[in-house]
Specification:
alpha+beta, 26% strand
Length: 179
Amino acid sequence: MEIILSHKICLDPTYKQAEYFRQACGIARFTWNWALEEWKRQYDLGLKPKALELKKQFNALKPIDFPWMYEVTKYASQQPFIHLQTAFNRFFQGLGAYPRFNKKGHHDSFYIGNDHIKLDSKHIKLPKLGWVRMREALRFSGKVISATISSQANKWFVSLHVKLDQMPKSCESTAKRGC
């Protein structure tokens, strides 16, 4: 049985690292808003937009129109397309509301894939940034499959998604509520 758990850990970034986080969140927000606007435009023309097609169009524009995006991890400008596709799938299935534009400071976050993450006790290594101090060590042993960096009340957090082979003993009694 495959189990995936998340562990949200408070980060202790330097000023430079926090600036990087703000920039990556801004790029993720900009990309989402660009993709949503383009989706609406194409849909109004009678087309059936797809996230991968929009991503290809965006990547063709990026070197010329948005070169500043290369200053942070590539995931900041890739993952919003996947999230938008999921949001529209949920909308068309009647499971969610129509996707809306993102505003600065409202659920700021960005995703990082496991191929760009390294952990060392109370530190996480992020692409184009280096080692960032975590306030606690990861509680679960397993394969880290992704991370999401987010901001809440002027604090930065990393939510690590870990694939486990079995449920940790500390979680067995609270499995219904989550660990």
